[in-house]
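Hi, here's the filled form for the chain we discussed.

Project: internal
Contact: R.S.
Residues: 262
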Amino acid sequence: MKLSLSGRLVESADGPIVSNREFLDLAGRFGYDAVDLRVSQLSPATSASELSALRAALADNGLAVFEGAYAGDLAQAGGEEAFAEFAALLADLGAEGVRMSGDLAALKRAARLAEPHGVRVLYQMHTGGPFETIASAAEALAEIDEPAFGVMPEPANLLLAREPFGEDMFAPLAGHILGVHVQTLEVRPDAPDALTLADGTRVRYARVPYEANAQIDFATFFAALRRAGFDGTVNELEPCPGPADLADTVRRAADFLRPLIA
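And the returned structure, exactly as it came back:
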């Protein structure tokens, strides 16, 4: 498996806290193989000069692009054309896929638009929707039924969704796992943050360091991915810790995840 660093790590409410060059230098410094570019880092509005600088920084650090995020709406006038152009841009950057939201019909249409460009539509499994659990994700995949569409399991959201971890947990998704997202949360009833599950249950959670997480069985999670035939890109998805803790967060995540994906 390959290790990717998400631009979420440098994304604040006011935009990225470092430049694209600084973000890519950070990923290269700590041995990541690829990056996940957020809308604030790459979009249809990115200028030619910005793209040129991005390509140079990727090359200088030996980094691939795992995925880019698309925030447009296919249903808007020109929406499908704009999406196809962005898919072509990602393909030109060598990206594996484009991440987007939307209902199942929109995801199906996006996959058809992306396929001629050689990129795929990637959807992170998350609480509160049709991809909340492995069983519901398998049903959604069957409904979309497009080769250029796949899911990205994420262990923290599976924990919140009360999904049991076991070495055969991903068998229903085999062949449809096109990437993996990883972050580190624990369920804590007294925590201030909460998410709502598809059945209306509120689950409270707290962020903890990877090495301190006593609730997510990361070893079984990755063993199950291998058993299901996955050997692709694992994207580290922790949110922005602030400038003072940025390099340490990147290093500690890489140190924890690299042995698991080796």
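Let me know if anything looks off before we file it.
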